[in-house]
Amino acid sequence: MPIIEDTHKTVFKSLDEGHYTKPDITFSRPGSTQSPKAWHDAGTVVELKHRLDIFDEEGRIIDSDEAIKALVQLAKSARSLLMASNACYVYIVSAFRHGTACIFRFDHAAFWATTAFDWTTETTIFPTFFFRLYNPADDGDRMDGDDDTISIPTRTDKVKMFDALCTHHFYDELYQSVDEATKNSLWIKAVRFSDVDGERIPEIVRAFTIGSILSSSDGLFSRATHVYRVILEEDVHLEKPPIYALKDVWRQACRRPEVDFYDTIAKHCIEKDVKMDGMARCYGSVDLSVSNGALTPTWDPTRHRTRLTGKGSSFQRCHTRSLLTPVGKPLKFFTSTKPMVQALHHTVLHHEIAFQAGVLHRDISDGNVLFEETAADADPKGFLVDWDYAEFTPEGLKNFESWFPERKDEQDQYKNLDKSLKDITGTLPFMAIQILKNDGVSHQPHHDLESIYWLLVWMILRHTKHTHSDGQLACSNLFDPTGITTKQGWSALPTPLDTKSQLFRLAQGLRRAVLLQNLAPRIEDDPFDDSPGPVFITYEAFRRVFEAALAEEWPTNDAALPFKVPSAYPTNSQSQAGSLVKEVVLR
């Protein structure tokens, strides 16, 4: 039986910035022997409300501040439970003063709520609900909604996997003990591809997570991306087992699987004899919601798809996992500005190879350009990841269907290519000015190249000693989502850096290219309009700027400065700089 605790005065530490909460009543996880004091200890929560004012008689959300506030509180609790437990869906109870209550079910696409019931007279509902919640028919030690592909390793498991990890000199030095490396470890089922007589065969494997989670999305109705550093149980006998990044994501069903883009890029490189040195690669991927694929699931596929009734694939999500290399670390931890610039240069090169293969990335951001984790500080390697929002060019789609004809039948479910390329897709602060204008333009390589420039500016304003008069507020003010005029004005002014620095000269070269790209189009039938019109950025132009800058001598003592959210922004404000990095997909 769970431990039930009054926690209305207990502050549950936020799993991200700015969302500390105090759930009213908290139920512990199964098997727990201590009172729940944090979200990782919680199985479900009960929120107490004075009035039943969230829904009207027809089940619609009431348009009142009180109703919205109550629903937001429930959503925050659901989000925290999903993040902490890795569950596929969770339940929240809302109880009201006069003996009525509602039970909510949240997943990563939507929520459902029961009709209000009087639990003081309908006395079997709560006992039945909680019994079923803690005693699902097919899972002995789990709660209903828990991910049935994740389990907790034993101490013996941890020692075995740690010994295998320590065959890598980098990780042997990084982790001083078994406990440090495996304190929060999990077993996660994944799929790795193997080649048998030229045919790709999927194999179910057990991935053991190492250290802290590498990346965790805080979105509720979102991809909810989690990235772990893992080593496979099947590889422990090897002299030096490979280390992967395991990416766990709730993909929109209307979007092409990310593995299709990785495979197309890899096949292009083989066909054209292009070296993939340093580029991200996919070694296995599985849609856990599929029950009739090339392998037999050892899990319940229905648990791994959302159930938003009456909606199309744009609203549904499928639980997907991929095994990727290399393992990365964030760009914001650069040891000096030159490695950061080198990583952006590598991004330009990798993006060009992908485009030659017929793939457009469409989501350049600070989370999608990484350093290779194991690279020495003196020889950093940057790479581009996260092709979830990528799309094929017309030529790329032809290549894909030619190279992978067995997947052609799956493509009918994805939307029209021309329409997809006109979607406004990306991470808001880094999106090109023309895309932000929403002119119905088709996404092109020059838009992503402009995004690389805005990523450089982001790094300058957050993590270097710049000279902008707004100080710590400079980044927030430039990338405020209220409009695009600030970006246009920025590209017309010198970069606020020491004018003698190499970083200044690089930024100026890229800025000029962005400025020319966003000139007003010529009026063709106006004889007095002699303006040149926009000049779109090319790969060659950006390469020249980067190569010229990197040929110079750079400082070695200008490591990234830590960024603190300016105090001028309230902790919970959605306008704070730290909250600006939100993925947007508009249709």
Quick recap of the structure?
With 587 residues, the chain is an alpha+beta fold. It has 15 helices and 21 strands.
Question: What does this molecule look like?
Answer:
- It comes from Mycena metata.
- This is Fungal-type protein kinase domain-containing protein.
- The protein has 587 residues and is α+β, with helices and mostly antiparallel strands.
- The protein folds into three domains: 131 residues, no CATH class; 178 residues, no CATH class; 258 residues, Orthogonal Bundle (Transferase(Phosphotransferase), domain 1), CATH 1.10.510.10.
- The chain is 28% helix and 20% strand.
- Strands 1, 2, 3, 4, 5, 6 and 7 form a seven-stranded mixed beta sheet that branches. Strands 8-9-10-11-12-14-13 form a seven-stranded antiparallel beta sheet. A three-stranded antiparallel beta sheet has the order 15-17-18.
- α6 packs across α8, α11 packs antiparallel against α14 and α14 packs antiparallel against α15.
- The radius of gyration is 25 Å and the shape is globular.
Work out the number of β strands. 21
Helix content: 25-40%
* CATH topology description of the largest domain: Transferase(Phosphotransferase), domain 1
Strand count, sense and barrel status of the largest sheet are:
7 strands, mixed
| Alpha-carbon distance between the two ends | 47 Å
CATH homologous superfamily annotation of the largest domain:
Transferase(Phosphotransferase) domain 1
Query: What's the number of helices?
Result: 15
Overall tally of structural domains: 3
Strand content: 15-25%
Q: Report the structural category.
A: alpha+beta
- Cα Rg: 25 Å
Stretches where pLDDT is under 50 for at least 5 consecutive residues are: 569-587
Name the CATH architecture of the largest domain.
Answer: Orthogonal Bundle
Q: Quick check: average pLDDT?
A: 89
Shape: globular
Name of the level-1 CATH class of the largest domain: Mainly Alpha
Oligomer: single chain
Domain Fungal-type protein kinase: 63-459
InterPro entries: Kinase-like_dom_sf (IPR011009), Pkinase_fungal (IPR040976)
Organism: Mycena metata
Region (Disordered): 568-587
